[in-house]
Sequence to fold (474 residues):
Amino acid sequence: MAAPWEDVLCNEPALREAASVAVDAALLEGVLMRTEGEPNASDVVNYAPFTLLPSTVPSALFEQAYAVQQDFNLLVDAISQNKEFLEHTLASTVKVDDFTARLFRIYTQVLEEGLAQSVFLGINRSDYMFDCGVDGTPALKQIEINTIAASFGGLTSRTVAVHGQVLKVLGKSKEASHLLPNNPSKGLALGIVKAWELYGSQSAVVMFLVEEVQRNIFDQRCVENELWNRNIRVIRKRFRDVFEEGSLDDARRLYMDGQEVAVVYYREGYVPKNYDQQNWEARLLLERSRAVKCPDIATQLAGTKKVQQELSRPGTLERLLPGHAEAVARIRATFAGLYSLDMGEEGDKIAAMAIADPDRFVLKPQREGGGNNLYGEELRQVLEKIRDSPERTSYILMDKIKPQPAINYLLRAYSPLQVSECVSELGIFGVYVRQGKEMVMNRAAGHLLRTKAIEHADGGVAAGVAVLDTPYLV
Ligand code: ADP
Ligand code: MG
Fold:
């Protein structure tokens, strides 16, 4: 679908001028990241990578993605409370994937002890691409749902102004006025505020659990500032700090150096490299506590790729969301083909199908953060090697989504301006709060558009592949 600025795409001097305006606008608006060389200091910062131009997004698909978000919130929450489903679904995975197994062990241990936590806060981001069918009509297809540390809700609110200015510089003021405002960090913060209120201790703080390397701190600060503006105190701590300073009292209230913590918001803890023995102990301490974890460990497990694959089996959504036939239909409409590689006849057939036609599929391990999936020839080689071994059950197989590429320019510090054929991924942020059995908040909180050059099969913004973008609805 042609963008209304198609006519300027080959006007190189105009684009160069627009790019230099764009970079300064990004710095002024706060589309910022710390640098690779100085990831833990803000003395030197740079702009986070972004597209020169917005990308067109079919408005019907954009609306569809928003309309299904509350359903996905309900679904994730239902899975997180369904021990039998999680146990059954992850049984084959925990045998071969040590990381999922360790998370699962904490999950069972905490359940056996009995949950001290009674308020639950979910912040997720459901990601989609626009699959081009045989007749060229795009369809909304879910890539995955992120139930832990879903990022860029802060920075993305600031690209709208940048892209608006770029369009104006290029003589497209009317188009600039059509860009939608977007502020996920405020929506996420309102969820945290609600959870903090329900926890019910005026003096308790919100703890951001952050990484050792904190390049994306400005994105997190956007959420933090929304909380400070509402007079809620925020502390930033690492697992290491929790190990050293964290403790529980008799009622399993969580304290950091004597300060009570109402909400733990994880921006860390989703990949194996985040954990050493001490960090696992810290995670267990947090999970055992009464504090509202965002997410609790059950909700993190609900976001695994194995769960995603099992959800696509006929009847599963209906069992998880009884009495929600319309929600089930809306959710199912976004599913691409997903296949289990569990041992047995079904898995054998799937493995053979993928080996015979690797370009139709993506092979995914139980990992987050980009850069882990296998495609094409590499997919074929790996699957051929493990096709008869239980190791194959640590992966799921998914139909490859094939979006229509569009022309854009990716702006990255120290990189020359250069035209790229690009594809985009739309994420919708969801926020919900449950107290006991009652949902007290369930919302879509805003969106994120990320765009990458087609030569990269995989990877997000943090992985250095995709860049921030703004949707232009057509
Ligand atoms: P991660 O948890 O690493 O983010 P994803 O499932 O989101 O895992 O995959 C990473 C990236 O790989 C996505 O952002 C997307 O660019 C690409 N990708 C994932 N699944 C598919 C698919 N089915 N078809 C096409 N590209 C995909
Ligand atoms: Mg992803």
Observations:
- The chain has 17 helices and 21 strands.
